[in-house]
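In the laboratory, one determines a bound structure by crystallizing the protein with its ligand and collecting diffraction data. In a computational setting the workflow is compressed into a single prediction: the sequence and the ligand go in, and a structural description comes out. We illustrate the idea with S-adenosylmethionine.
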Amino acid sequence: MPRTREPKPAQAITVNASERQLAAIQRAARARGMSPEDYLLALHEQAGAGEAGAGGVTRPADEALKRPKVKHRRKHGTIYHGDSRALLDKVLEPASVDLIVTSPPYGLVFKKSYGNEDADQYLDWFRAFARGFRRVLKPNGSLVIDIGGAWNRGEPTRNLYHFKLLVMLCEEFDFKLAQEFYWWNPARLPSPAEWVNVRRIRVKDAVDCIWWLSPSAFPRASNRRVLQPYSADMERLLKRGYRVKPRPSGHAITKKFNRRNRGSIPPNLLVAGNNESNSAYIKYCQKHDLVVHPARFSAAIPRFFVRMLTDPGDLVVDPFGGSCVTGEVCESLGRRWACCELREDYIAGAKGRFVGERERDDAGPSGGAARAKPYKVWTPALLEADDDEEPLAADGGRARARKARAQP
Ligand SMILES: C[S@@+](CC[C@H](N)C(=O)[O-])C[C@H]1O[C@@H](n2cnc3c(N)ncnc32)[C@H](O)[C@@H]1O
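The predicted complex, in structure-token form:
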């Protein structure tokens, strides 16, 4: 809300801010039609005078929100039932969390509207969580958000909400983007059918964005914790040996490339199917007639980030806990954890992840690597194009082609 200007200040205070911080404050103030001074004052008032924690504004999301209830305790962690804004504001200590790894509801659940309005609505909703994340994260901790894209209603264009979320987190909440990841789920079915299967004007959307953010440019991390087996090509090269020479790209291939390490450094494309159809969780839900969470992420996703970004004993939080995949992964990896979920029926099923003896949930030396099969990815556009195919539709597929209509 724009504020009226106070008379010229009698005194000035000096605040040491980097150019980037200053620019972020100015941008956020401009976006609200405020001066930077008024914007800072508004933040100060929202923070409840003097409550600022580790580098973040700590305004409680809503005083009326109840503290989430403890629903289940394990050796290393707890499932809470309730609104995680209250967990972030009232339960967790400031600067206590090493990693937040989560998959929030996607923008498409904001069904009322679409286009920019949809994205803006999502950002407004997310702000209270972002403030909470800033409050509870350690300065060198990490925030990992798995977020799927969404299509705008009625046309083959993509909503920008997840990119806007990333920009908002960096510009308004001073997170830094450590790296963007992409989760390719090969089991994803083609959709939306109208654009992909019927009109054939878009391809399968099979990738989620994963934003790895941190308050620090140097969050604690080690890629040695997430090595993967060498590819067949790399194995061959290691056996035969590399020729030491500069590459056309300018990269120097030195003798070091011939050294066999424990494995290869993974790319920022994570491949994991969401094929939990036979798991103890699903069996538990079926046996007890409980709802199976419809939007789970693969355990491989939190496992990767928990291993890369935390040590045993560190605290990991999933504020959109769902079926508590994150809790299950952390329990098996010996990290302390807290999952919070709004819906009690999802929590009832999540308890199934912790009944009976658990296998070590770790694709490590206990056999995961030996059992796993690599995914194959083809070179793009490998098959010859069909020369008999009609020319591209001048209207970009706005109208259904007759031929397309006849196809299944
Ligand atoms: C995409 S799902 C997460 C699924 C989870 N990663 C899994 O694999 O089971 C998002 C979850 O956030 C929950 N949720 C939405 N708003 C919430 C809030 N304010 N506090 C806690 N949970 C919330 C939803 O009920 C939903 O179960």
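Residues 230-261 form one domain. Keep in mind that any predicted model is a hypothesis to be tested, not a measurement.
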